[in-house]
Amino acid sequence: MAGIFGMFDYTKEGPGIPKDAPPKSRFVIFFEVLGRKFWKIIRVNLMFGVFNIPAFLFLLIFAASYSHLFIPPEIPETDQLRYLLGGTVPLLSVFLCLPMITVGPAQAGMTYILRNFSREEHAFLWSDFIEHAKKNFKQSMIVGTINLFITVLVIVLINFYFRLPGSLLITAASTILIVIFVMFMMMSMYIYPMMVTFNLTIRQLYKNALSFAIMKLIPNLLILILCSALVIVSFYFNPVIGYILFIFITMALISFITNFYVYPKLDKYMIQPTLQKKEEEQVPVQDSL
User: Fold this and answer.
1) N or C, which end of the chain is more exposed by having fewer CB within 10 Å?
2) Higher pLDDT, 288 or 61
């Protein structure tokens, strides 16, 4: 039986689409694709989670080793682990979902599949995941290392500034640092989709990502807030439920949302101009009479 008791069964023939039907909005298409690919997205999340165990272990070790950065001094020592698992680790998981702390090749493999889903194209889950993880291994490892280094550095610096005596200079410095990091998080939404779509250098990836982050500042910020909120809210009422969702769908769902949002921008500003330029180069120029 497809689906569950006939639900989520997208294999049945429908009435078809009238020829004169108006084009569907991206909002409607998003939920249609999400419904069709729901179980595959869960499988992608599980695959990504297995390959990202080192990243999650790093997150746990970092949170435990530098617990003084996250745990208020009034929390008893016996409750510190519960505090980390119930609040700090879920909050840091935002960086894994966006992605900031992640094993690069696994991120590249997942991004390729969910990018294809976002543009309503087929993808072979396992073979495409492995193929594009290998294909982008070097670049994704470099990007993953850069993002990890910047994320850890910013967390340490922000905590350092917040512990200093209050002053206008410290407030300004911490505010500027937070704004820069938010910009960097918005850049991270574009880096992996560009990596699996174009043949770009590391410098070009970050340069183009910065351009998109500035050019689409408000929409980027709204998507960033949405994705962060989905991760945080999933843990808010019951951390156990949050961890279950994290294992089965959260990471891939966030990636699907960001790819669905990002790809039309890449198509409009990078793919279409390139195709148009190639077409113009192929058209023979005729001498005017």
Assistant:
1) C
2) 61
269 domain residue, yes or no: no
- Rounded CA-CA distance 52/46 in Å is 10
The whole domain housing 148 covers 26-264
Report the distance separating Cα 89 and Cα 5, nearest Å: 37
Number of domains in the chain: 1
- Its sign, for the CA torsion 153, 155, 160, 162, is positive
Task: Determine contact, residues 96/251, Cβ cutoff 8 Å.
Answer: yes
What's the alpha-carbon Rg for the chain, to the nearest Å?
Answer: 22
Q: Residue 143 falls within a domain, yes or no?
A: yes
Does residue 274 sit within a domain? no
289 lies in some domain: no
pLDDT(87) > 90: no
The average pLDDT across 192-199 equals 96
Cross-strand partners of 225: none
Q: How many CB atoms sit inside 10 A of residue 122's CB?
A: 8
